């Protein structure tokens, strides 16, 4: 039996994302006042994805509780839709985007933090908020994966959606650059057009790899659980 019910964990995680988003939006940073605002940063987009995802999880838990023991077919149908939306978001957005943001951020940060998170930002963003945006995302999503089985779509369909998300974000970054003359991330200012194109292709490939890894991890966790139950 779990020490903390998964429903309570989801509510706590959702509240933590609300806190992180509110504190982040309250920061008076120059970047927030420029074209695209916070929405030009993948970190912020990911935080919104995670908050919406855990909001759907909490809503699914509430709906499941309310429909328990009910004979109403319409309520059951609505609950199945919510579960389907929850599983779809986990598969194609929450896990791959969250894993990508955490691993890419800290890899570049260790290599040369000024490429992704200039020291100037330390004057605006406290360390706890930085970790809330770039660290806790991954353990939170793994906790969710460990406590609840998520049905993945077909790999072809899932990879298509993930690639469309990645391409959409690349197009958005290029649009912001065309409007402002400045790239969203300092790293992109230091490389030429060909290297930038290669970087964008690698970005799309990597987020696709994270989708497959998420599917493999989900199946491994729940296949192992089933084996233990049978044993």
Automatic annotation (TrEMBL):
Catalysed reactions, semicolon-separated? 12-(9Z-octadecenoyloxy)-octadecanoate + H2O = 12-hydroxyoctadecanoate + (9Z)-octadecenoate + H(+); 13-octadecanoyloxy-octadecanoate + H2O = 13-hydroxy-octadecanoate + octadecanoate + H(+); 12-(9Z-hexadecenoyloxy)-octadecanoate + H2O = 12-hydroxyoctadecanoate + (9Z)-hexadecenoate + H(+); 9-octadecanoyloxy-octadecanoate + H2O = 9-hydroxy-octadecanoate + octadecanoate + H(+)
Q: Name one Pfam family in it.
A: Far-17a_AIG1
GO cellular component assignments: endomembrane system; membrane
Q: Spell out where the chain crosses the membrane.
A: 7-27, 47-67, 88-108, 128-145, 157-178, 198-221
- Protein topology in the membrane: Multi-pass membrane protein
Name the UniProt key words of this record, in alphabetical order.
Membrane, Transmembrane, Transmembrane helix
The question of whether Transmembrane is a record keyword is answered with: yes
InterPro entries to which the protein is assigned, alphabetical: ADTRP_AIG1
Instruction: State its location(s).
Output: Endomembrane system
Write out the similarity annotation: Belongs to the AIG1 family.
Q: Which PANTHER family match?
A: ANDROGEN-INDUCED GENE 1 PROTEIN (PTHR10989:SF11), ANDROGEN-INDUCED PROTEIN 1-RELATED (PTHR10989)
**Can you say what this protein is called?**
Androgen-induced 1 (H. sapiens)
């Amino acid at each position: 039996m779990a020490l903390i019910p998964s429903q309570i964990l989801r509510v706590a995680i959702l509240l933590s994302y609300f806190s992180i988003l509110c504190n982040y939006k309250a920061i008076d940073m120059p970047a927030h006042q420029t074209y695209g605002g916070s929405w030009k940063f993948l970190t912020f987009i990911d935080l919104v994805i995670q908050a919406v995802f855990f909001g759907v999880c909490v809503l699914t838990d509430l709906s499941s509780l309310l429909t328990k023991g009910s004979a109403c077919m319409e309520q059951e149908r609505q609950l199945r839709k919510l579960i389907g939306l929850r599983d779809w978001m986990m598969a194609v957005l929450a896990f791959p985007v969250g894993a990508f943001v955490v691993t890419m951020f800290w890899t570049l940060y260790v290599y040369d933090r000024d490429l992704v998170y200039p020291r100037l930002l330390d004057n605006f963003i406290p360390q706890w908020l930085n970790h809330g945006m770039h660290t806790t995302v991954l353990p939170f999503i793994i906790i969710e994966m460990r406590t609840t089985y998520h049905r993945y779509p077909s790999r072809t369909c899932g990879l298509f959606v993930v690639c469309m998300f990645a391409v959409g974000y690349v197009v958005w970054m290029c649009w912001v650059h065309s409007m402002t003359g400045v790239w969203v991330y300092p790293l992109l200012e230091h490389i030429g057009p060909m290297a930038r194109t290669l970087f964008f292709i690698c970005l799309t490939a990597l987020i696709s790899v994270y989708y497959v890894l998420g599917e493999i991890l989900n199946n491994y966790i729940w296949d192992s659980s089933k084996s233990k139950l049978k044993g």
